[in-house]
Input
Amino acid sequence: MLVYAVKRLGVAVLVALTVSILSFSMIYLSGDPAIALAGEGSSQEDIENVRRVYGFDRPIIVQYGDWLWSALQGDLGHSNYLKSDVASVIFERLPTTMLLGACALAFALVLSIPLGVLAAIRPNSLIDRIALTVAVIGQAMPSFWFALTLILWFSITWRLLPITGTDSWLNFIMPSIALGYYVTPAVMRLTRAGMLEVLSADYIRTARANGLRPSSVLFKHALRNAIIPVVSLAAVQFGFMLGGSIVIETIFAINGLGFLAWESIQRADLPMMQAIVLVLSVFYILLTFFADMLNAFLDPRIRVS
Amino acid sequence: MTDVASSDRAVVVPSVEPTPGMLLRRRIFGHAGFVIGATVLGIIVLMALLAPLISPADPYDQDLSNKLIPPIWSDSAKATWEHPLGTDLLGRDYMSRLFHGAQISLLIGFAAMLISGVIGTTLGVLAGYFGGRVDMVVNFIITTRLSMPVVLVALAVVSLVGSSLTMVIWVLGLLIWDRFAVVMRSATQQVRNLDFVTSAQAVGCSTGRILFSEIMPNIANSLIVIATIEMAHAILLEAALSFLGLGVQPPEPSWGLMIAEAKGMMFFDGWLIAIPGAALFALVLAINLLGDGIRDVTAPENRN
Output
């Protein structure tokens, strides 16, 4: 287990380093960052000043090293627009996005796991077909359009839910559904496939033959094993959702990281963009690392090979 | 239509051994998802190809005196057959914009899928075939790519480099190859140790020949399925990018952009977002159904 953990951690650190190089190099995508910062039509002297003050005159490798070293110490640079340091803004906004992601994931799991289990108990039944239809339709719906449609129904037509803001838990209902529904097909399919496989296993037959209650067989013996791959899928999807929250947060004006990312892109606030990409990627790396560890802990076959 | 064809066949050839082609056709027409998906996709492709011919008006032609005409099925007296789907905020004919938008969605979806397909398949097949170090490196690249949030990176890059149709295609193509790589890798791993590959190696075929004429044909099924998934994915991403204002730029009629432009009016004129949204939904659903259909129809276990 320890060897496996150390190996996985090594890969995670390498991936994080690569991601940091990629996010750092975003600065140079638009050409000379000094010209971009000084603004178009500024004098050569101004550009040179900006270059010196921001340190763009140093070799790129030194700039990267400096940036990475500060980032490791929790200093992600200064925003070009907000005149405050990037890290504090990001960590102020992060909890909102985490909350939204957690609600969306909870919605997705509550909907998809029971559907997947029901579909597996009665394959090719009406419920299985309904679940399949939900999955196929869910995958084809553009999230932003779905979000707008939700607003149209729940806020405009029926006047049940507030459209924008984060004042109460009511504000989180529509964004969570809009963000979470996209994950449901994958979780449901995996639950169904896992349950189908487990339900035909010998130990389930034995459990049934021993006269255990059907509900006990189903939940204590079958679902427990079928749910293992779902755990790591859920972790991965949670990471994807944080990245995807940019669309949903923009629509519902939720003051989280996604909305911040969109604002920063609009303002060409490069240090902020770099930092958000880095933070979300590192968070995803951590998430998959812990999911792998949990998997190895639950399933001995993984940590041996 | 389908029923008639199959019952005809049953009458004509009860005793003759069915050919593989006939069996394939029977499987295809017996698969509801495949038929529906192919039909809807066919209609949308036709819409896109014939857009210049069948559009009622120029999709860029503004007419502010005729703005926000509702579609023909609404009760409003303003509805007219001159604009069957009405007009948008600038008085442009909505049906013409919808037809021309199909071109953009299909073009971006297909081109981005091709780019990502080439990258992902190359990486996946090499990793699956050679294993060892190559596999490790490819796995590392895949993990790195997966850890970067697609929508955010795409938005950031497009905003820095400048948005245009070509740029959106390249950014999406360079970002969404991960599923190709993952699936092609495991498909190649399954095929690599089969007897025909071993015998090709034994008679001294070059690696290139083995990859192209032994491996590729045997993983083509899953390749096509992933291609449909990724094309749908690219279309949805383009729509989201355009919706956020960083994809296809006005006045081009992208469906995502049409929804964005109509957002401010949606409380009064819901059809403005309903129509392009429904079109996007239908297109992505059709591609997904077709992909699932191809998977089911070509799977060896479903042959008998």
